[in-house]
Amino acid sequence: MIKFFRNIRQNLFTGDAKGMPTSTDGSPDHGSRARKYLLYAFGEILLIVIGILIALQVTNWNAWRNDRVKEKIILSDLAKNLEINIETFRNDINLLSMWNQSSDIVIQALENKMDYSDTLKQHFHLARLTKQNLFLSNIGYQSYKDIGLDIITNKTLSSEIINLYEVIIPGTLSTNYMVNEENTEWGNHLVQNFDFIHGEGLTPNDYKALFSDHFYISWIKAYKQGRLYLMETDKTLINECERVRSLITEELK
Predict the structure, then answer these.
(1) What is the pLDDT of residue 61?
(2) HSE on the CB side for 133, CA within 13 Å?
(3) b or e along 223-236 (b: 16 or more beta carbons within 10 Å of the residue's beta carbon)?
(4) Phi, psi dihedrals of residue 23, rounded to the nearest 5°
(5) DSSP characters for 152-213?
(6) CA-CA 20 to 30 A from 136: which of 16, 29, 204, 220?
(7) Does residue 18 have a pLDDT over 50?
(8) Is the pLDDT of residue 10 over 90?
(9) What are the pLDDT digits (tens) for 114-153?
């Protein structure tokens, strides 16, 4: 395009000798020639400006295209991280549910004064477990922050992602540390009344004495309720992660 404009400008300037303007006495019209020189100079400047504008436009377009490639990678990584975290929460629910099943078996055995069975060893062990630390994947979100939060063009989606990672997840998990916390008195009670054998579980020193051990039974019930709370927490976070992951999936489409 620049070459096209340059040819037009060149033709305007050069012209053949027959087309050269002359004065009334037949001599060349130098004023007209000066005007053509000015037009030539103006044309050169115009072409330079056009060239710069086109170069800037190409640079901006390339930068925009590269940013969209980065955006797609970030969104894909975030979706994968959320899938991992959802699976982490589901596994935690399954584990807490298994521990609570052991709690129910222990409570039923003691309250109904059932005969002792070696199968109770493992249930005594699982019933007293508190909770596990959840290790969530946030590599995609960390990359998102490192590359710049403005890389995602959908600002509503960006706000949802930031809110999930910065507010909802940490805010929801912040109270978990208070649930089923280790208690010195409770720990000492277990040590005094049970023998722990790795791979087998807890063996009570006096099984029948546990029938009237209200302190022990109360703690087992309290831990069960705590796990129920933790399971509800996991379910809430699963719903939030699935909702944001769905938004990301739609954006990638």
Answers:
(1) 74
(2) 1
(3) bbebbebbbebbee
(4) -85, 180
(5) -S-HHHHHHHHHIIIIIHHHHHTTGGGTT---HHHHHHHHHHEEEETTTEEEESSTGGGGG-
(6) 220
(7) no
(8) no
(9) 999 999 999 999 999 988 889 999 999 999 999 888 899 9
Encoded amino acid at 202, one letter:
L
Q: How far apart are CA 106 and CA 103, in angstroms?
A: 5
Q: Are 115 and 163 in contact (CB under 8 A)?
A: no
Alpha-carbon distances of 11 from 8, 43, 95, 105, 186, rounded to whole Å? 5, 12, 85, 100, 99
Domain positions in the chain: 79-252
pTM of the complete model? 0.77
Q: Which H or E run includes 119?
A: none
Report pLDDT digits (tens) over 151-181.
999 999 999 999 999 999 999 998 888 888 8
